[in-house]
Design goal:
Number of helices of chain A: 17
Number of strands of chain A: 19
Number of domains of chain A: 2
Oligomer: homodimer
Distance between the termini of chain A: 40 Å
Largest interface: A-B, 116 and 116 residues
CATH superfamily of the largest domain in chain A: nicotinate phosphoribosyltransferase
């Protein structure tokens, strides 16, 4: 990712992280802490999540630290002492990170990532990690649903104009590529990530010429190798006729030709366009639909057998319209060798560093303590070590391999979890040891509460 | 805004913008074009929008251009010729921009911004402008609703951990400050924008100590000047007791003391906390609520007279949960002195450069052609010139003045538009001249359509 897209400063965090870290540093509380990043509950319409965002997290962790200006600001405006800022000046991320590979299909409660590092470091990076993982996973999960809606169509990310900023446009291009999109309109992401960039024409192009026919002629002349005509600026049927006229008179190769429909009844128009193209001997020309699409609209178009070859999917995927974030958490699960838990109403967390063992055959995941014995075949561990002592391990997975990893998981996901409406997530079973530890700590942490002393663990 | 947060490259756009610009440049179509940026429809629950994002747009326009690497990529991967990239190399933004000031309350159809520039330039910046204005306006509009829900409370932006990236965290802090928030937890934004940074403690801090009491004692010792205890890690009533015990034994000044409630029944807990604090002689200590709040939850708490002084509002504001984007458009309305329009079904646009004249007294806005005579008092124009020839004009409005501008508008907004549920937006009336021009162009642009030749303008 380009530096332009990234804020690496130590101030890119919530103030409380720095206050807590300063307090820990004052008190020498620098023993190893393990934090677990997971999603508490899936949004109603989601049967699974697609893990994403790890790559940018590892980049941010590698560059983490405070510079002189950061420290001066903290001292001047935020009430930190000279001793605090001196201690913070030395902080780098020197910890270990275990994570599921990008593209892994996960459910609620399953750690996407676990950090083990001296407590101040592990605390300071909370906001960064939650921010990057939550957003990228939100989008990858939404994009995967678009892929499910149209398994055989070409999907293009059209979201850049209405994502939450330009960094978001980049992340959306990357997360949607990871989850099965074929191309993006966002050029910066195409360059940085080696994606296919796709560009057609806007209504303004048509309007800038005296007539639609003249606009199409000019565009065909300038881009004969890939010509997609937007045909709905004035009247769609006229637009299709004009496109066909220009394609034939200009001798455009039909297999490099396309029509884009961006408004109105897309199914009916696609049938009309297909008929007119075929009648004109342009059977290889392709039809693209865009304009407010999401997985539901695409599924409806596919169900109606609309002859649409490409879908340009923008805002509703790029902001994950029906679930624009996830109920993610980054929770302390162990400190100084001691597993810990939290009991807050509705937000209780399970203690201890964890591992997830998955069986696709039995369609079940086991949520275990990391110290437990590995369950027998066919269970496979999901979390792998991606950083030790602040340095990335040899485990390198590029976007292409993450994409393949996702596609493999999606194929094995049961239909009930893949459903776009009322899906049923795969089962996640807590190991007996994790249940027992949760129960024990829940009881121990409430020695004085009397009538409140009932277990509120997450079991 | 820090460079770290910003991508200024010419490739931060949709490919089609560059394709169209290259085509215009080949053809010498560099006459002045005017594009209008507006929102077509308000989301269902919105009675008004709060314009935001202009400042970052002006920064991006000032730095707009392609560097050598950009051009090499376009030539190598995107099918542009050497002549194209040579022409693109010379492109800077040299146009004029008129815009409503940040913090202006606007409705559907009203231009937030109009660009007049040589056609290729005006086209190339479309994605940038839409991206920045749409997002910032979405968030400012959502944050304004939180302000309406609790007119007298202190509101703190807690969104950074789940915004759509770190640039988004910055924009959310800025847009919410503009729309009446008092502080932010996001340190980078506080530094860049001179906002008040607020930080409490997380559950992990409490968990890292052997007991809650020890955690609170340590925090009070380290941050006596501003001490907010998070009291729900284990049992909230116990937590409140522990906080009171530490505050009294440590002699903390009650007016610098606070309790934060982050889960469960916030209203009941706030009443309990208030009672316990008052009984302990800590009447000046303040109570903060957080945890999944939005304007609806805050309005309910206010209606129930929960004694909450501060609200930490995070994800649901920071992603604008119920309407995470806007139906924004950037449409060509004039080229080379000729007004133009588009008729696409459901997306028709009105022609010509525009001005909006507002009367707060009559609670009506007039949408006019920019060339029309200024209506008499009490109407005031909303759009002002903020850039000429690619340079910013002397019209400088900082965040503070934008915030005052917003507050002034909010006070004058009728209750019907301010309602959180089923609001009624203020009336926007098209001038007779704009109606007439729209009608004429609609008829002219459909000379050949026969049965389709009915007006589909936006009137």
């Amino acid at each position: 990712m380009s530096d332009l897209h990234r804020a690496t400063g130590g101030l890119c965090t919530d103030l409380y992280e720095i206050r807590m870290a300063a307090s820990y540093l004052r008190r020498g509380m620098t023993a190893p802490a393990t934090f677990s990043l997971f999603v508490r509950r899936l949004p109603p319409a989601r049967g699974f999540l697609v893990a994403a965002g790890l790559e940018s997290c590892l980049g941010l962790l590698t560059g983490f630290g405070f510079d002189g200006e950061d420290l001066a600001f903290l001292r001047r405006e935020c009430g930190f002492t000279a001793a605090d800022t001196e201690a913070l000046a030395g902080v780098r991320f020197t910890g270990d990170v275990r994570a599921v590979p990008e593209g892994t299909i996960v459910s609620a409660d399953e750690p996407l990532l676990e950090v083990t590092a001296p407590l101040p470091e592990a605390q300071l990076v909370e906001t960064l990690l939650l921010n990057q993982i939550t957003f990228a996973t939100t989008i990858a999960s939404k994009a995967a649903r678009c892929r499910l809606a149209a398994p055989d169509a070409t999907l293009v990310d059209f979201a850049a104009r209405r994502t939450h900023g330009l960094e978001a446009a980049f992340t959306v291009a990357r997360s949607s590529a990871l989850a099965g999109f074929d191309a993006t309109s966002y050029v910066e992401a195409a360059r940085e990530l080696g994606l296919t960039a796709v560009g057609t024409m806007a209504h303004s192009y048509v309007q800038a010429f005296p007539s639609e026919l003249e606009a199409f002629s000019a565009f065909a002349e300038d881009f004969p190798a890939q010509t997609v005509f937007l045909v709905d600026t004035y009247d769609t049927t006229d637009g299709i006729s004009h496109a066909i006229e220009v394609a034939r008179s200009g001798g455009l190769p039909p297999d490099r030709l396309g029509l884009r429909l961006d408004s109105g009844d897309l199914a009916t128009q696609a049938h009309t366009a297909r008929r007119m193209l075929d009648a004109a001997g342009l059977g290889e020309a392709r039809i693209m639909a865009s304009g407010g699409l999401d997985e539901y609209a695409v599924a409806d178009l596919v169900a109606s057998r609309a002859p649409i070859d490409l879908y340009g999917i923008g805002t509703r995927m790029g902001v994950s319209w029906d679930a624009p974030s996830l109920d993610s958490a980054y929770k302390l699960v162990a400190y100084d060798g001691r597993p810990v838990l939290k009991l807050s109403a509705g937000k209780a967390t399970a203690p201890g560093a964890k591992q997830v063992y998955r069986s696709w055959e039995e369609q079940v995941d086991l949520l275990c303590l990391d110290t437990e014995q590995v369950p027998p075949d066919p269970f496979e561990p999901l979390l792998e070590t991606v950083m030790t002592g602040g340095r990335r391990t040899a485990v390198a997975r590029d976007l292409k391999s993450a994409r393949q990893h996702f596609a493999g998981g999606l194929r094995r996901l049961p239909a009930s979890a893949r459903a776009l409406s009322e899906p049923e997530p795969r089962q996640v079973t807590w190991s007996p040891a994790l249940r027992a530890l949760t129960r024990r700590l829940t009881e121990e942490s409430r020695p004085t509460t009397g009538p409140h002393n009932h277990a509120r663990g997450s079991e």
